[in-house]
Amino acid sequence: MKKILLSILFIGFLHVANAQYVTLYTPYGQTIQGLTLTELTQSQIDYMDSIYTVTYPYATFLGSSTRSYNCHSYAWHMQKGGSPYWINSALDPSDPDTAVTNIGKYWTSDYYVPISVSSQAQIIHYYRSDHSAIASPTVSNAYESKWGSAPLMRHAPEYGPYYFMSYRHYYAARAFSFQISGDDVVTVGESKQYEVALPAGISMTCEWTVLDAKGEESGYTQTISGNINTITFNKASFFQIYCKVYSQWGVCVADLGIEIISSI
Amino acid sequence: MKKFLLFFLWGILLYSCDLKNEEKITSQTQLEDGVYTFSQFSDPNFWKNFHSTTEIQSACQIPEDLLKEMSTDNLVKSCMNYPLFFTYTAYTNELVGISEIINSFNGLKELMSREDGVKKLINLYQKFNIDPKGNVMCITKAGLPSKLSFLHLGYIELLLSSKEVSNQISNEDVSKLKTTALNLYQKKLENVQSFSMDDIKNSLLLSSRLKLIENSNNVDAAGLNDFILKGGIVEARKYETLSRDLMTK
Hints:
A: 264 residues; mainly beta; Immunoglobulin-like; 2 domains
C-alpha cells in the first residue's frame, strides 16, 4: 500500500517537473547539451536570495535564485541572446580530462578564444570550481555570474561562494575581421584574385557569388579555390562580389561584399 | 632611555597577552555546551569584515585547539553550524560543491578523520524529520541551528552521498539510513509547497549511493554511478525510473 502511495505521490510531483535535455548551439554551430530543470519553490527562492545577500554583502544582487539557468548558461549561452537553460560543463563527468566536453566547445574552434590579459576578458572560467562568469559591462574590475541555483550576482573576481576563485582562465570573442581583398577597378579581360583571409587553426568555407549590374551571374568567369576566387571580367559593367563565410558546423559567420568597376 | 625601552617592551608584552586572551575569549564565547556555534556570524554586519573568499573561509574555521578536544557528537553539531554550509547550492554539480566544503572546512576534515565521525553523522541524520507543514526539524535541538531549513537537510543528505563520507558507510549503516531517507523522501513528496524536485534529487542521490554500497546483484551500478557523477542533474524521466527502483522496492 505504501509503495502505491509513494508512486502516486511521485507521479503527482513529476507532473510539475518537466526536466528534459535540449540541444543548444555555440555561435559557430557546435551542439551543446542543455537541460530544463524544474524550479525551486517561491519560499526556497526567497530564503536563498536572503542567505546569499547576507553572507556576501559586497556582492550586488542582480537576479533571484532559480534553477532555470546556471553560471555556464549565463556566461556562454545567454550573453549571445540564448534563452535560459541549465548547462553542465561536461557531457561525461567521469573523465577528468574531458571535464569541459560540453562548455569547452565555446572556445574550441569557435567564437571565443583563450586570452592571457584578464582586463580584456569577456568570459571567465573558474576552472577549479566548475564556474563561469562574465566581465561586468557596467562596473570595471567586476564580474557577473549566476551562483548555481542561487542568485545572479555582481562581484569582485575573488569574492563569492567558491573555494578556488584564483584559478581562472580568460576568454574573449575571436578578434578577427573578415573582408574581401582585391582590386575594385579592373580592365575587361583581366584576371584578378579576390581573397578572404580566414583565421588560423579553424576550418571555414567560403561561398562566392558574383553579380553584374543587372543582378545576373554573367559577364565573367571564375575559378574558386576555397577562400580565393580568381575572376576574369568579360564585359564593362559594375559587379558585386559576395562571399559568405561558414563555420565547419554550417553557421554563417560573415556575409561580405565589394563593388567592382570593370572598364575597357 | 633604558626606562623608556623597558616600558615599551612591557607594553608590547601586555598587548600580545591581551590579543591571545581576546582570541581565546572570542572562540570560547562561540562554544555552547561544547558545540562551536559560529554565533558571531548570525549578525549580518559581521560578514562585512571580510572582503575576499579567502578571508571568509579562514574566518569560518573552528579553532584548532577546540577542534581536537571536541567530542565527536559536538563536532557533528558544529559542522551543522558551519556558516557556509549552504554554498553547495552555488555549484552546477552540488556534489562537487559538497566535496569542496569537505576539503576546505576543518570541522568536516576532522570529522572524516575520526573513527566514529561518519557514524555520528548518520545518527544525527536519523533524527531529522519534516513536520506536516513542511518544516525541517531535528529531534536533537541542543547545539544545532535554531531554525533548520531545506538547505540543512540538503547539506546532510549530500554529505552522506559524497564519496568522502560514503566510503566510510558500512552495510550495517545502510539499513538505518535507508529508513530515514525513505521517510524524508515521502515527507518531501507530501509537501510540494515547501520542497522542489531539487530536494527529491538529494534523496535519490543518497539512495543511489546506499544501493551501491549494498552491492546487490540486481542493481544497475553503471546507471546509478552516472546519476551520482552528474550530481543528479538529469532528465525527469530518469528520476521516475530511479524513484521506482530505489524508493518502492
